[in-house]
Amino acid sequence: MTKIRLTKIFEFEAAHALYNYDGLCRNIHGHSYKLAVTVIGKQNTEPNSPKLGMVMDFGILKNIVKEKIVDKFDHSILLNKKENINSFKNENPMFNRIHVFDFQPTAENMILHFVEIIKKLLPENIKLHSLKLHETASSYAEWYADDQI
Ligand SMILES: [Zn+2]
């Protein structure tokens, strides 16, 4: 049966800094991230199913990405663990939402992180097809399952 791709687009605001980078991105700065999540699968053909005709309920995809990515990373700071966080992290609540990673928080690494999060939570019959992560209107990273083989 024919496979169909579904895409849902999410947006969140976050700051990051690239550890040891040889340019302006060494400094904490913000991005309006836009994340397009594309899944692929076959339509539900069970006549009495409330999901008849759907590959996946957009609402389920929305809940996964909203809860695990958007709500977690929106209005937060994304940093490499090599940064000396203790030098500025204190009781001030403006530092409450810092995420420290084992990797440099580039668009490339963030998209790989998001792939791992989303993959685990998709229903069995649905495959993650691709992700597209915009840092700016003109700069984005893409991940395609088919590229990984
Ligand atoms: Zn940046």
Q: Which helices and strands, and how do they pair?
A:
Blueprint: E1 3-16, E2 29-42, H1 58-73, E3 76-80, E4 98-101, H2 107-121, E5 127-136, E6 139-144
Parallel strand pairs: 1-3, 3-4
Antiparallel strand pairs: 1-2, 2-5, 5-6
The structure holds zinc ion.
What does this structure look like?
The chain is of the alpha/beta class and 149 residues long. It contains two helices and six strands; from the N terminus they run ββαββαββ. The chain has one domain: 6-pyruvoyl tetrahydropterin synthase/QueD (Tetrahydropterin Synthase, Chain A). 21% of the residues lie in helices and 36% in strands. A six-stranded mixed sheet has the order 4-3-1-2-5-6. Helix 1 crosses helix 2. It binds zinc ion (ZN).
Structural key phrases:
binds zinc ion; elongated; 149 residues; 2 helices; single chain; alpha/beta
By oligomeric state, this entry counts as single chain
The best one-word shape is: elongated
Helices, by number, come to 2
Q: What's the main sheet like?
A: 6 strands, mixed
Contiguous runs where pLDDT drops below 50 for at least 5 residues: none
Helix content: 10-25%
Distance between the termini: 23 Å
| Side-by-side strand order of the widest sheet | 4-3-1-2-5-6
Structural category: alpha/beta
Any idea how many domains? 1
Give the amount of beta strand, in percent. 35-45%
DSSP E strands, number = 6
Q: What is the CATH H-level superfamily?
A: 6-pyruvoyl tetrahydropterin synthase/QueD
